[in-house]
Amino acid sequence: MTDFTYSVDADGVATIAWDTVGKSMNVMSQEAFLTMDGMVDKALADAAVKGIIITSAKKDFAGGMDLNVIAKMKEDGGDDPAKSVFEGVMGMHAILRKIERAGMDPKTLKGGKPIVAALPGTALGIGLEIPLSCHRIIAADNPRAKIGLPEIMVGIFPGAGGTTRLVRKMGAMMAAPFLLEGKLSDPKAAKAAGIIDEVVAPEDLLTRAKEWVLGAKDADLVKPWDAKGYKMPGGAPYHPAGFMTFVGASAMVHSKTMGVYPAAKALLSAVYEGAMVPFDTALKIEARWFTSVLMNPSSSAMIRSLFINKEALEKGAVRPAGVPDQSVKKVGVIGAGMMGAGIAYVSANAGIEVVLIDAAQEAADRGKSYSAGILDKGIARKKVTEEKKAEILGRITATTDYAALAGCDLIVEAVFEDMGVKAEVTKKVEAVVGPDCIFATNTSTLPITDLAKASARPAQFIGIHFFSPVDKMLLVETIRGKETGDRAVAKALDFIRQIRKTPIVVNDARFFYANRCIIPYINEGIRMVAEGVEPVLIENAAKLVGMPLGPLQLVDETSIDLGVKIAKATKLAMGDAYPDSAVDAVLFAMADQGRLGKKSNAGFYSYDDKGKRLGLWDGLEAAYPLAEAQPDVGHVQQRLLMAQVLEAVRALEDGVLMDIREGDVGAILGWGFAPWSGGPLSWLDMIGAARAVEICDALTAQYGPRFTTPALLRDMAEKGETFYTRFAPQKKAA
Length: 734
Ligand code: NAD
Known about the structure:
Elements: E1 4-8, E2 13-18, E3 27-28, H1 30-45, E4 51-56, E5 64-65, H2 68-76, H3 81-101, E6 115-119, E7 123-124, H4 126-133, E8 136-140, E9 147-148, H5 162-170, H6 172-180, E10 184-185, H7 187-193, E11 198-200, H8 205-215, H9 240-257, H10 262-274, H11 279-295, H12 297-314, E12 330-334, H13 338-349, E13 353-357, H14 361-380, H15 386-394, E14 396-399, E15 410-413, H16 419-432, E16 438-441, H17 448-451, E17 461-466, E18 475-480, H18 486-498, E19 502-507, H19 514-531, H20 535-544, H21 551-558, H22 560-574, H23 581-592, E20 605-607, E21 613-616, H24 619-623, H25 633-653, H26 660-671, H27 680-687, H28 689-703, H29 711-719, H30 723-726, H31 729-733
Parallel strand pairs: 2-4, 3-5, 4-6, 6-8, 7-9, 8-11, 12-13, 12-15, 13-14, 15-16, 16-17, 18-19
Antiparallel strand pairs: 1-2, 9-10, 17-18, 20-21
Helix pairs in contact: 2-3, 3-11, 5-6, 6-9, 9-10, 10-11, 12-26, 13-14, 19-21, 19-23, 19-25, 20-25, 22-23, 28-29
């Protein structure tokens, strides 16, 4: 069995149909590429074949490249992985260029065989790069299909000619959102943008493709860039208009990426340099930049965390073995506030029946109307139909009546963050649900093991911690209490899969995993304000190292009074061991002045009446005079990063984190930890344990025990180990 099938019909039209063995979505492997190549050769060599249709036997065309192939190319290279990667990429270029030239005479551009790509559905990454090398792209009118080049999202760029071809087809300016932001379009939008050539009714796809092949003339096969007198749309870099585009694009990329994402820079270089040379040289330049990106540790780490490990977690890598499917049919959401309303929406949207309960009917109704609001926005953007809205809202019953929970197989509690209120709710729920129902709490700070004491069935009690806003945030943190059983974990993971989010599973400890790491980040920023470090230096240092928000902006967004509440509760729990009084002095003073953050239009930043952030509050400087000697930006970054990553290491040492993949994926999806690094543990691997120990020792000498080097890190430095060698997931499974 191979991943492509080949057939020729009575009219001499060959069809090469992609059908990856054993997968529901086509993905490209090295072998499959060679199989396709062999079939193209066969068709070009066969005098009876007039033209070729490249299509899919599945409902979609392709999801992209199997990114494990890249790791394989590197491994195959032994001592010279870059050479192996470059040659591998050039091999792909040769195959796609052969499709594009299709046997035509290179001088007269005549005598080639027409090759059309017929896309029944989604076509991503290499699944669009192959069509871009064909002479025509026809897509079925399938509004659910996604067409585009999302490579940049995992730290690489389209490196099988997609970059060079799209820019030459559309111009650098028009291609920018598709290449630099990985923008995906449905077939009609892709046609309007000029990425594909035709959209036809799904049932006409192959007939139309065949008709085109049989009617194509020599001139129809010649790509603009292979024709005489080709000029790049919008102008090449040395053209005045092109010059403006490239200057602007360069500035835009740097403002968005802060210079920390090698792929975006390399992509721009490939486009800029490629635009000034003939097509085949441009492909070679693209291949060189692509190789340079693939050899960059940041790209490998991003691929590992954001593609390979994220997918592994979504597919159940940490799900308890042997527990049968626990898919949720009816979920009860208790508390219809900000979180409960979001949880109800994502559940109903995934086809699950929802009972949404609050203490008052108005509150429950308001929670349900939150879903209506999201769906209305979808309707305005033509992503949702009125029928779909009615169907989703029809699944949500908003009520105050606990009896409506009968028949629920999962409960997610999202009432006030109060032990007593939560205990009372737990008892009320357990009185009406069946004995098999799993009870989950969305608490962000209360220990699951303590909350489970209110339950008659602690083995069925678990933490399912969503992030806000629920409909946008991709991570869900599942927390095992001391007595939580495997079926509860499996239920949580099956639910998270149903609502199409990414799970991590951690053990119960103060602030679980994500909040445990993010709070010290915010606190370190606030400490620096108290020390007289320029606030703008703190914020920019964070952004320049790839954090989406500086610590002061982050605490403004999450609210300063929440920070005060957490600080008070933590102090109460820790007593004399509480280490953050210096932070509290600033935080409490802000709260006392009514500066509660974004929600009160006043915090570490100033805001206008409409809530637009203006700049750092000028009162900060009066309250915390600037120190005469300011640290350099690298030092501020070390403090901000180490504050987070040391907690990740401690979480691993304490057994809160059970799998390093979860530590990295959870950090990027949960709080946006510098995605270019692949996550906190990948970042430590990148700088090396020895260097990390050096930084920690120096910071400890200067600032005290919060930077104490974890014993684990010291041991790894002595042994020359990395996290991904010491805790390799395969080793764990063995
Ligand atoms: P919220 O105040 O917006 O909503 C709480 C809702 O629970 C209110 O509508 C309230 O009327 C209802 N409620 C209170 N007692 C009830 C009872 N006995 N029976 C039924 N309903 C009751 O709060 P929120 O921000 O949605 O937070 C809810 C939970 O989620 C908390 O445990 C919180 O710690 C956690 N959480 C919040 C965030 C966040 O960013 N806000 C993130 C993760 C987790």
